[in-house]
């Protein structure tokens, strides 16, 4: 399968904060949505910075559309739509003025499409962006990101801060976008329920390290948590344990194949769990 | 480049509008009153004011994530820097036009406003070179020290601009005898040196900006 985005062994350190992005590797195939999950400060925004060259990586390679993007590769950036969390645009502009600027920047800027999104999202054209609600500013950013016919959307916490109805609306827009096989989305979020709805792949990052990357179907249908007693836990094959977490009277063990675990360890209770719980176990749990 | 210049214009626009109205009203006052000092002050304020207004507005882009977002657009970092340099020159031109119109009207109504008509050249050369020197110092400092310190960098750059111009004038006065040729030569040296530093400041700013992370 061909990848629209590929990260190979990306390293980036910030000596002042002691934060290190440590040999991060993952890829995003064409026609799919990759959910990029991690707690606040895990390194999601830094990774996106390395992809978009707003942050200089120390080593490793990022390939976009099969090519490493340099500052001069404006043709690659023509094909990327970006949404950051929060205020993406100057608040003293209106959507109309923003459109005028974008028209002079993107060769493929589609003003009619932008107007259509503004209408669909109920965004006033002449109102100053600073007077928009948070949800409206995020909708505006998504409208801008989509209005130059990009192939790749990079969304950094684009749905955080939106109410569930608005989030659902946006997720529908993303699903519609990836209907085209040449389109993909990198969706960074810590709202795992959103990712469960739309993502094809989910990559977990914690303290700058990649801890798991898997297809969503695998996570939802195969990954499971075994509820073990101490004696049961000690009898487990270490190779079956991805992560474990001691609770008051039991030990939760994350395994990558619930059915097989149930067959192998007949006494144990095996539960299929949400991506949220998988993330909690991966982040807070221990490794063998 | 068109989009970036439009971006810069929209960023400066609201401040420039207020400043334009102020300059228009004060211009009418300066035309009505016969005062050499007021005219000199107006010319300098107009040229330096418009161009510094253009560069101070850059910090407004960093109140939002726009400064970072711009780097994800299909523009080179060098083009972003170039657009600021061009914008500053455009606003300097606007300031020079204001000053030119006010001086012309004052001249038409009250006669030559200065002791010698050639002094007009000196004043314009002074104003233009201070503005250009200010920009030349400001942009590398801005990228080096960060947008959040833009106010202090503007003050430093303006002081450096004025200091450099006064330094060049003092130096020329040491070696040249007073006269029309000296005034013209001084004006030419000021304009040439400020433009030279402005031109050198551009690649330096680009190099620094290339290393910036957002």
What does this entry look like structurally?
The complex is a heterodimer of chains A (288) and B (214). Chain A is an alpha/beta fold. In chain A, a hairpin with a 4-residue loop joins strand 1 and strand 2. Chain A has helices spanning 44-52, 74-78, 95-103, 111-120, 134-146, 164-177, 192-198, 216-222, 230-234, 258-264, 275-284, and strands at residues 3-14, 19-29, 33-37, 59-64, 67-68, 80-83, 152-156, 184-189, 201-206, 209-215, 224-228, 243-246, 251-255, 269-271. Chain A is elongated, with a radius of gyration of 21 Å. In chain A, helix 4 packs antiparallel against helix 5 (134-146). In chain A, 43% of the residues are buried. Chain A has a 6-stranded mixed β-sheet with strand order 6-7-8-3-9-10, with helices on both faces. In chain A, strands 2-1-4-5 form a 4-stranded antiparallel β-sheet, with helices on one face. Chain A has a 4-stranded antiparallel β-sheet with strand order 12-13-11-14, sandwiched between helices. Chain A folds into 2 domains: 3-218, P-loop containing nucleotide triphosphate hydrolases (Rossmann fold, 3-Layer(aba) Sandwich); 223-284, no CATH class. Chain B is mostly helical and 214 residues long. Chain B has one domain (2-210). Helix content of chain B is 81%, strand content 0%. Chain B has 7 helices and no strands. Chain B has helices spanning 2-32, 36-56, 66-69, 77-110, 119-145, 150-175, 180-210. In chain B, helix 5 (119-145) crosses helix 6 (150-175), helix 5 (119-145) runs parallel beside helix 7 (180-210) and helix 6 (150-175) packs antiparallel against helix 7 (180-210).
Structure in a nutshell:
With 288 residues, chain A is an alpha/beta fold.
Please give a handful of descriptors for the protein shown.
heterodimer; A: 288 residues; alpha/beta; Rossmann fold; six-stranded mixed sheet; four-stranded antiparallel sheet; 11 helices; B: 214 residues; 7 helices; 0% strand; globular
